[in-house]
Amino acid sequence: MEFKYTEEQQDFKNTVHDYAVEVLAPRAVDIDKNNEFPLETIKELAKYDLMGIAYPEELGGVGADAICEAIAVEEITYGCAATASILTGHYLGFDALFLRGNDEQKRNYLTPAIQGEKLAAFCLTEPDSGSDAGSSRTTAVRDGDYYILNGSKHFITNAAYADFMVAFAMTDKAKKTRGMTAFVIEKGMPGMTIGAGDDKMGIRGARTHEVIFEDCRVPVENRIGEENEGFKIAMQVIDRGRIGIAAMGVGLAQAALDAAVKYAKDRVVFSNTLSNYQGIQWMLAEMATDVEAARWLTYYAADLKESGKKFSKEAAMAKLFTAEASHRVVHKALQIHGGYGYMKEYPIERMYRDQRILEIFEGTSQIQKIVISNHLLR
Ligand code: COS
């Protein structure tokens, strides 16, 4: 058991960290202010092979390990959480093809997504089914060589910019979780339209939109896996995605901690810097402990995934812990900044808003507890 980065992982971490600090962090301000999807940044991430880093070379990836993927997400979040959310949404969007796609689907969608030529989105959540993903209302009815999709999805990250999305629809509604099927939906397919964009509290650049299917004809060859296998595919993808969200929590918490340390050393109150007061020192100590615990729980889940072992429970634990730890950390970091922390001139104000979604998307904290306890009690 070795709790340290390999030399390669450390070099990679340093490189992405520098890029995040020098390039992403300055851009994060306008992305947030203008509710702007950072297209240029996404092209850059593709150039740096970050759009599908942990996928095999034969599929177009660079074959890095799952810990490197977590490091990439962590460091990108350090600079800009919205950019990281676009990236994790992209991974989530094509992962079903990696797990269950056939050769043609892999060639047409997966490899271009891994190489960053095509952007992907994951289309599961609906206005009336979020946590209860098995209660989806979108239907897919077989009609010869096509499925006809009707229904709507919402809060879909990347939807308006994606070249394709993996969408889930009910092929046998009565069977609930055993009646859902996964499909690849290409941009511009007749019957699929992108609806209104959301005006969110945080990670504003990671634009989310509604997706509407009205008699959308999807060729049978766009079905992923077998009919009615979609729920399990979605759950497997989300299990893997939760490590990414955990990594986002680590990156955001580290950024908030570093900002708080810097502010505490600079800010003078009652003739002393904040860092001289034990009340502040204790807060910083608690924050640093949360960050490290979150980081190693995330790497532990990533390592299990990399080793081909079961990791569903540990991914949920990492997601739960980092989401809540990052909440504690940004809260204290803002408190240390005092009134300035409440102002938009300081990045902590944005981090505070960006953090909140980590406790909600890819399964709320309460859903993670259900997943963990299901593993304990089964
Ligand atoms: N991997 C593979 N299969 C899984 C699975 C997983 N992680 N989780 C559940 N399944 C399977 C079960 O084994 C069961 O299979 P059988 O039909 O063969 O028995 C089936 O899926 C249904 O499972 P379950 O009965 O546990 O489903 P529930 O409807 O009770 O839902 C939770 C389970 C709550 C865990 C699930 O709905 C969930 O994770 N919801 C949150 C969804 C989410 O994260 N949404 C955000 C979207 S992305 S932003």
Describe this structure in words.
This protein is an alpha+beta fold. The chain contains ten helices and ten strands. Helix 6 runs parallel beside helix 8 and helix 6 packs antiparallel against helix 9. The strands form three sheets. The protein has a four-stranded mixed beta sheet. Strands 2-3-7-6 form a four-stranded antiparallel beta sheet, covered by helices on one side. The chain is globular. Residues 124-125, 131, 133-134, 177-178, 231-232, 235-236, 238-239, 312, 361-363, 367, 370-371 line the site of coenzyme a persulfide.
Strand line-up in the sheet with most strands: 1-4-5-8
> Total number of β-strand segments?
10
Secondary structure tally, helices:
10
In this entry the ligands are: coenzyme a persulfide
Order of helix and strand elements from N to C terminus:
HHHHHEEEEEEEEHEEHHHH
Tell me the strand percentage band. Answer: 15-25%
How much helix is in the residues? 40-55%
Mean pLDDT: 97
Largest sheet: 4 strands, mixed
Shape: globular
Gap from first CA to last CA = 29 Å
The Cα radius of gyration reads: 21 Å
How would you classify the helix and strand content by structural class? alpha+beta
Low-confidence stretches: none
Tell me briefly what this model is:
By secondary structure, this protein is α+β, with helices and mostly antiparallel strands.
Question: How are the SSEs ordered, and which strands pair?
Answer:
Layout: H1 7-34, H2 39-47, H3 66-79, H4 81-100, H5 103-114, E1 120-123, E2 139-143, E3 146-157, E4 164-170, E5 180-186, E6 192-197, E7 208-219, E8 223-224, H6 230-266, E9 268-269, E10 272-273, H7 278-306, H8 312-337, H9 347-355, H10 365-377
Parallel strand pairs: 1-4
Antiparallel strand pairs: 2-3, 3-7, 4-5, 5-8, 6-7, 9-10
The chain binds coenzyme a persulfide.
Residues 124-125, 131, 133-134, 177-178, 231-232, 235-236, 238-239, 312, 361-363, 367, 370-371 line the site of coenzyme a persulfide.
